[in-house]
Structure formats: C-alpha cells, structure tokens
C-alpha cells in the first residue's frame, strides 16, 4: 500500500517567505530551508525581522491570497491522486496553507501552527515533532504504508532517504551536488513518471 509524501513550498507552490519578501522589499526574508537547514533558527530569524518591521500575520496572509500554485502543479497533483494516496508534508503553518490548499483542490496536508497574539503579532510556532518530516514517514510506515517522497530542501532529505523511493525536485544545484545519491528532477512529467515506476 503506497502513499506519496510531497513537500509544499518550492514543489507545488512558490516559497511563501520569498513572495512576502518581494512584496515588502525585505530581502532578508528570502532565506529559506534551502540555505538554512536549522528550521528553528530560521523561524526565529524571520520572527525577529517581522517584529523589527512591525509586521504580523495579516500582512503575510494578504500576500498569500495573491499567490497561485506553480504552473502544472494542480494537474500533476490531480493525476497523482487518481493513482495513489497523497499527503503533503510541510513545515509551513495552517494559517498560511489554507488558501493554497483550496487552489490545489484540498489535498491532505500535515503542517504546523503559528502562535499569534491578539494583535496579530506572530509570537512563536508549534511544530509537530522533532525531525518532523522523517517522523511522519516512519509513522506512516509503521501503520503499513510504503512511502515515496519528494521535496526541494535540506528539511526534505530525511523523509526522502527514509522512503522506498525519493526524489529532489526543483532543488538548488548546490543541494543536488551535495546529495548525489538522490535523483534530482525538474519537471512534473519527470516526477510523475519516476513515482509511477515505484508504485506497487
């Protein structure tokens, strides 16, 4: 029994923080898990910048409302979901993901929660668990699933390597070069074909 686990940002939708950085002109917010593997360090860095600029959840949500899935992402996801079970495993937050899930046809997503004060200030975050994505994979395997995984960043490597098959997708040349044991793909057609090869 197979289940495909996909990262969200950089795989199906643009990077939310990069889009927000471009909208606000705060280029420090373009830093993502592609460059910073320590997610907690990255999030604290982001929250410090938001506080410095007096920005909160509502400003980020306004930008997310203007975002669309990547070209071909919904069609890829629709076809994949017709073949097997799919879950999106993301380190984003439910407060960010909801409008994007609507545009993708409401796929299942496992993600995290922001802690937000009454005035809209983001004061912290609540993660699922340490080694978040790999843990999801291991728990799915414990209940009888064989997993196939794909993502683009440092925080996807654990779930990719823990799966029976896994692929880097639209990743950086540096990350692909540093992980030569993982096939790096660039198009949805390539990813769909690679996944199909490993479906039982």
Give a structural overview.
The structure is a single chain. With 200 residues, this protein is α/β, with parallel strands linked by helices. It has a domain of 126 residues: HAD superfamily/HAD-like (Rossmann fold). Helix content is 43%, strand content 20%. Strand 5, helix 7 and strand 6 form a beta-alpha-beta unit. The longest helix has 14 residues. The protein is globular and about 50 Å long. The N and C termini lie close together (7 Å). The mean pLDDT is 93.
Q: SSE layout and pairings?
A:
Layout: E1 2-6, H1 16-24, H2 39-52, H3 57-64, H4 73-83, E2 85-93, H5 94-103, E3 109-116, E4 122-126, H6 132-142, E5 146-151, H7 157-162, E6 165-169, H8 173-178, E7 183-185, H9 188-198
Parallel strand pairs: 1-2, 1-5, 2-3, 5-6, 6-7
Antiparallel strand pairs: 3-4
Helix pairs in contact: 3-5, 4-9
Produce a short descriptive summary.
The protein is of the alpha/beta class.
Q: How would a crystallographer describe the biggest sheet? A: 7 strands, mixed
Elements, N to C (H/E): EHHHHEHEEHEHEHEH
The CATH class name of the domain at 2-13 and 70-112 and 128-198 reads Alpha Beta
Query: Percent helix among the residues?
Result: 40-55%
Large-scale geometry: globular
**CATH superfamily heading of the domain at 2-13 and 70-112 and 128-198:** HAD superfamily/HAD-like
Count of separate DSSP helical elements: 9
- C-alpha termini separation: 7 Å
Task: Predict the CATH topology of the domain at 2-13 and 70-112 and 128-198.
Answer: Rossmann fold
Residue runs with pLDDT of under 50 for 5 or more positions: none
Rounded mean pLDDT is: 93
What is the percentage of strand-forming residues?
15-25%
For the largest beta sheet, what order do the strands appear in spatially?
A: 4-3-2-1-5-6-7
At CATH level 2, the architecture of the domain at 2-13 and 70-112 and 128-198 is 3-Layer(aba) Sandwich
**Rg, Cα atoms, Å:** 17 Å
**Helix/strand structural class:** alpha/beta
């Amino acid at each position: 029994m197979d289940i495909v686990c996909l990262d969200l940002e950089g795989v199906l939708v643009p990077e939310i923080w990069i889009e927000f950085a471009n909208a606000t002109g705060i280029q420090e917010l373009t830093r993502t898990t592609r460059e910073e593997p320590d997610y907690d360090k990255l999030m604290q860095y982001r929250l410090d910048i938001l506080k410095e600029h007096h920005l909160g959840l509502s400003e980020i949500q306004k930008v997310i409302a203007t975002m669309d899935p990547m070209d071909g992402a919904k069609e890829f996801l629709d076809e994949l979901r017709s073949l097997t079970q799919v879950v999106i495993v993301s380190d984003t937050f439910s407060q960010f993901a909801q409008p994007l899930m609507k545009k993708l046809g409401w796929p299942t997503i496992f993600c995290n929660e922001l802690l937000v004060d009454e005035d809209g200030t983001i004061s912290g975050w609540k993660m699922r668990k340490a080694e978040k994505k790999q843990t999801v994979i291991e728990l799915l395997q414990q209940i009888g699933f064989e997993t196939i995984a794909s993502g683009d960043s440092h925080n996807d490597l654990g779930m990719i390597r823990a799966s029976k098959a896994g692929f880097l997708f639209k990743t950086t040349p540096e990350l692909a070069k540093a992980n030569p044991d993982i096939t790096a793909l660039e198009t949805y057609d390539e990813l769909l074909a690679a996944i199909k090869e490993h479906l039982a």
